[in-house]
Design a protein that fits this description.
The chain is an alpha+beta fold. It has 2 domains: 6-68, Phosphorylase Kinase, domain 1 (2-Layer Sandwich), CATH 3.30.200; 74-288, Aminoglycoside phosphotransferase (APH), C-terminal lobe (Aminoglycoside 3'-phosphotransferase, Chain: A, domain 2, Alpha-Beta Complex). The chain has helices at residues 32-47, 81-95, 114-127, 129-136, 138-158, 198-209, 217-223, 225-228, 232-237, 242-252, 256-288, and strands spanning 6-11, 14-19, 22-28, 64-68, 74-75, 166-168, 177-179, 185-187, 194-196. The strands form 3 sheets. The protein has a 4-stranded antiparallel sheet with strand order 1-2-3-4. Strands 5-7-8 form a 3-stranded antiparallel sheet, covered by helices on one side. The radius of gyration is 20 Å and the shape is globular. Bound molecules: adenosine-5'-diphosphate and magnesium ion. Residues 10-11, 14, 25, 27, 54, 67, 69-70, 73, 175-176, 188-189, 191 line the site of adenosine-5'-diphosphate (ADP).
């Protein structure tokens, strides 16, 4: 007897499906190149039994990604020391898979366009400057723009040489890093997987983590050796107010009502970040010397 599948929509293009006693996630891609890239990365990682991923189940449709559902998994919390340490270790293990694979030779993976992406982020923020001023006030908007403009040339200056490249996850937001019911960290959502130096991902991870440790760079360097060991090029990246720009630009994509709701959360988030930025800037500059 075949039972009707039980389907629950998780996001616009992600479903949880329960069928014949097994549970899996189903993700529909709009882009063939992303779907092919994500499957390729998983196929390679499966060859070495990489422990921090979720295998891909066979599927007829090339735009569909099917994976076993991780029951009782929960996203890591960057507020917790254990989750910071374990998520970082899983990402480092991912970067170290370049011992087994020549990721650079893969036709599906492209170099992370960090500077282009960040310049584009700032220019979109500038395009909507008046709108953001109405929500956030002139002074705060000026400060965000000031820090972003000051940081970019420093990041550029310290990142002239491309350095060693490996596979990066590319989107280390906490809900793409799950702890399964056995305590193992599983990286999901490789849609933005790309090539760059491991340090680039560690800097992007630090951007996500810093709001949860009061933007205390010294504390993070002290807690996570890998972050302290980052090259100056990656440490310089910490100067760029990446989270602020990303969050405010994300707000633009929402319907009116949701914009107001998110703004109420983003205003205190922005105030906390901006009041911590002078010290963060000083500490990062000291670490570059
Ligand atoms: N195999 C899985 N097991 C458990 N939860 C999953 C699984 N795949 C996806 N999810 C859940 O669905 C969410 C969205 O999936 P994700 O691939 O990250 O989509 P998006 O690209 O929209 O972020 C994840 O954050 C996670 O909570
Ligand atoms: Mg995701």
């Amino acid at each position: 007897m075949t039972l009707e599948p039980n389907v629950k929509q998780i996001k616009e293009n992600v479903w949880k499906v329960e069928e014949n006693g097994s549970k899996y996630s189903l993700k529909r891609y709009h882009s063939m190149s992303t779907a092919v890239k994500v499957k390729h990365v998983h196929e390679e990682l499966e060859k070495i039994d990489f422990p921090h991923m979720v295998p891909v189940l066979p599927s007829e449709d090339r735009l569909l990604l099917q994976q076993p559902w991780l029951e009782n998994a929960r996203p890591v919390s960057y507020k917790r020391r254990r989750d910071r340490t374990d998520s970082l270790a899983a990402l480092q293990a991912l970067h170290q898979t370049n011992v087994y694979f020549d990721w650079k030779a893969s036709p599906y993976l492209h170099t992370y366009p960090l500077l282009t992406k960040w310049m584009d982020r700032l220019s979109r923020f500038l395009d909507h400057r008046i709108f953001f001023q109405e929500m956030l006030g002139v002074r705060r908007v000026q400060e965000i723009i000031f820090y972003a403009k000051e940081a970019l040339p420093i990041v550029r200056q310290y990142n002239r040489e491309p350095g060693q490249q490996t596979l990066l996850h590319g989107d280390v937001v906490h809900h793409n890093i799950l702890r399964d019911q056995n305590g193992v960290i599983r990286l999901i959502d490789f849609d933005l997987a790309c090539l760059s130096s491991p340090d680039t991902e560690l800097a992007l991870w630090s951007h996500r983590v810093l709001p949860h440790v009061s933007y205390n760079v010294h504390f993070l360097f002290g807690e996570q050796r890998a972050i302290d060991d980052m090259k100056p090029g990656a440490k310089a990246m910490l100067l760029y107010p990446n989270e602020l720009l990303r969050e405010w630009l994300h707000l633009l994509t929402l319907p009116d009502q949701n914009q107001q709701k998110l703004a109420r959360q983003l205003i205190p988030f922005t105030e906390a970040a901006l009041s911590a930025w002078p010290k963060l800037w000083y500490d990062v500059e000291q670490s570059l010397k």
